[in-house]
Amino acid sequence: MTRWLAIIAVIAGVAHASEGSDAGAQTDWQREQMASEPTGAEPSPPPVPGQAAAPNPGPPPPPLPNQPAPPKPELQATSLLGGRALGHLRVGGHVTLGFPMIDLRIGLGLSDRFDLSVGYSTYYFLSHELLGQLRVELFEAAGFRLMLSVFGGGAFFTQTPQEEERGARWLTGHRNINVSPGILASYQGSHHPRAARFSLEVRYWLAISTQGEALLGHNVVVRGTAELPLSNRVAFLLSFGLDVHGRAEDSIVMPSSTLGISLNF
After folding, report:
1. DSSP state of 89
2. Distance of CA 174 to CAs 59, 180, 235, 263, Å?
3. In the Cβ-directed half-sphere of 148, how many Cα atoms lie within 13 Å?
4. 216: closest CA among 177, 187, 186?
5. Does this model's pTM top 0.85?
6. Separation CA 182–CA 216 (nearest Å)
């Protein structure tokens, strides 16, 4: 009997020592949690025996920097028929088809305000003209622009003046040598990349004949043009005008109209 009482006492002592050890470990863990957590925060639940503690997620990642806004499309504002000069070493041109002329022209910007262009015009292949033009931008403000230009060139006709009856000379007022200074005003009001542009051009046209008729012809050309940009490089253009001829052998007034494409590179 005494032996059984001794065995029971030893087992009870071992169990009590184990419970005290667990309670001490749990009390130490609670002290560490209370010391690491700020005052007023709810304590974290004690870890479950046999389960690993969840890893600390760490501080949140920094916010992403603001992404730059995409660039706005460039305004189509340069043309050989209106708008500003082409710009330094930039290329532009146009192709027009209408009455009475077909016109092809290409230009190069010499500076931000000067450009030079060359072209070919024909009255449906009954006349052939090679032209050169110099333009300078004089004024720009609030969408308005004012330009001065002068061009000149030579024309070749398939018929002589004596053979011709109401042909290329009579319709156009042009002769073998042509010189024309003019002034061009244009307006493009909106900064939208496809804002329409309107221009009005007035020119004096001196026509010099070298084929046995009156030497000089004095003409006035008035032309209005609307350009509708399709992109920052391409625009559709529509033009109407009047050519007033001073030579008796020519038509007194000849209307003109053209459709075409304006290009910028």
Report:
1. T
2. 82, 11, 28, 27
3. 3
4. 177
5. no
6. 18
pLDDT digits (tens, 9 = 90+) for 175-200: 999 999 999 999 998 777 788 999 99
Q: Rounded to whole angstroms, what are the CA distances from 139 to 175, 186, 190? A: 33, 11, 18
**Class of residue 167 by CB neighbours under 10 A (exposed 0-12, middle 13-18, buried 19+):** middle
> Which residues make beta-bridge pairs with 141?
144
For 15-72, write each residue's pLDDT tens digit.
Answer: 555 544 444 545 555 555 555 555 555 555 665 565 555 666 767 777 666 766 666 6
Closest by alpha carbon to 180, among 222, 123, 227?
A: 222
User: What are the residue ranges spanned by the domains of the chain?
Assistant: 91-264
Distances (CA, A) of 220 to 89, 203, 206, 210, 247: 32, 6, 9, 21, 11
**Domain 91-264, what fold?**
Porin (2.40.160)
